[in-house]
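Tokens for chain A. Residues wanted.
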């Protein structure tokens, strides 16, 4: 109790004196005791407070530093992402411009190629007639439409159109596939091989349809 009280009281100087007397003689004994409990206690508490607060402040400072660094890193990442997105948008815009320019150039070539478009329209009619004949297993009719070889006029004219209107390797690849399949079709029909004729016809027709889609001619031709 006394210790608690001393630790919470205001600074003070405590003096105590005691006297004793007897009937025969008198003697005075004075004892002065000086205490400074508060000063000692205050210093101790201050040290304890510093010890207690220092880790807390350190952790808080570390937390603030970590949070600041984290936010700065995010800001940097967002900035970098924005730059990359801007570059992507610019590249996409340039690609759109190039594609549009190519389409306009292609449309100009098609518009100025009426004769070649006519050759291709004749090719569509020939393939349609051959397909109908093969559907009925009528190889003689299919053979009469195709002719005996790839040197026939309609095949040669079709290739003139192919060469003029093909502008990239992919389109030229489809042309090669068409010609190869057409040669197989003519050969199979001449041999009266129905199954091989049908397979070769599907291959040639598919290659031609792909080519017209690539070149933008699909909308210009009837019967596709």
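Reply:
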């Amino acid at each position: 109790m006394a210790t608690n009280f001393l630790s919470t009281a205001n600074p003070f100087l405590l003096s105590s004196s005691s006297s004793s007397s007897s009937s025969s003689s008198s003697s005075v004994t004075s004892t002065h005791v000086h205490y400074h409990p508060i000063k000692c206690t205050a210093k101790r508490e201050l040290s304890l407070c510093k010890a207690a607060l220092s880790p807390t402040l350190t952790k808080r400072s570390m937390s603030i530093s970590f949070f600041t660094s984290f936010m700065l890193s995010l800001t940097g990442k967002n900035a970098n992402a924005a730059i990359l997105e801007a570059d992507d948008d610019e590249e996409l815009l340039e690609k759109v411009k190039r594609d549009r320019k190519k389409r306009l150039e292609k449309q100009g070539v098609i518009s100025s190629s009426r004769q070649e478009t006519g050759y291709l329209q004749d090719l569509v009619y020939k393939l349609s007639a051959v397909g109908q004949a093969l559907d009925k297993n009528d190889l003689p009719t299919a053979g009469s439409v195709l002719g005996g070889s790839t040197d026939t006029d309609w095949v040669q004219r079709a290739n003139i159109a192919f060469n003029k209107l093909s502008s990239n390797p992919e389109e030229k690849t489809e042309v090669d596939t068409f010609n190869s399949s057409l040669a197989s079709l003519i050969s199979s029909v001449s041999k009266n091989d129905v199954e091989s004729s049908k397979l070769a016809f599907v291959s040639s027709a598919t290659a031609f349809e792909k080519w017209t889609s690539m070149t933008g001619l699909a909308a210009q031709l009837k019967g596709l």
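Residues 13 and 64 are 47 Å apart (CA to CA). Confidence is low (pLDDT under 50) at residues 1-40, 48-57.
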